[in-house]
Amino acid sequence: MIMRFLRTVLILTLLAMSAAACSVLSEPAAPSGELEAAPVEVESAAAEEAAVVEESAAVAEESAIEEPAVAEEAAAETAADEAGGGLTIYQIDPASSQVRFELDEVLRGSPKTVVGATDQVAGEIAVDLNDLASAQVGEIRINARTLTTDNNFRNRALNNRILNTGDYEFITFVPTAVNGLSDSAAVGDTIEFSIDGDLMIRDSTMPVTFAVTATPVSATQLAGSAAATIAREDFNLVIPSVPDVADVEEEVELYIDFVANAS
Hints:
CATH topology of the largest domain: Lipocalin
CATH class of the largest domain: Mainly Beta
Low-confidence stretches: 8-23, 74-84
Number of helices: 4
Distance between the termini: 74 Å
Order of helices and strands: HHHEEEEEEEHEEEEEE
Structural class: alpha+beta
Mean pLDDT: 84
């Protein structure tokens, strides 16, 4: 009786191990389609700008009745302001951008930094260099199915067991506040600020702050990087138990290196 019980336990254990191995070794789900950026919400800023322009036009019209020379000068100033101001929409270029994560582990007794990366990142940024306080950042989307490391077995475990990308294809970051911006910037300036937002990985969403460094390379291009650190536990990211892997770091470093072009 005892031997039969032990055999049953052994068989069930082997079946469980086999099922776990199959889930890790199976081919991960492919991306469902082309990654597209969610449009940045700039309606409120546009409405405010339109109101200012309308008010300027009314002042100029009133001045035209009383003082034609003053009205002409005011109209010229308004035209100059309109020509040099306003939000420009920049869209992240995947071909020139990269998202990656880094964490340390001990592999076969030796320390190793695991790096996973993808260029499948999308998002929009609205910026007026003459009025940085009006800057807005749209939702950042990453296709988790395209994240890869230097090891194919690890890639399958990452997709099938850790991130469960078959059910949760995208990682998203929804900004809630942009902090620390200066009043204005010129082409070539380095701008440092932070972005608060909600990071969603799988079915877990937590507040995260990215430290950002950006440079307007030209009037039509922005380039920069963003970094944040998260805890695996906060997002229920459990590393499968593997004989050769030990001491996997709890903290995960996240990086976004981006180039964004005016759309």
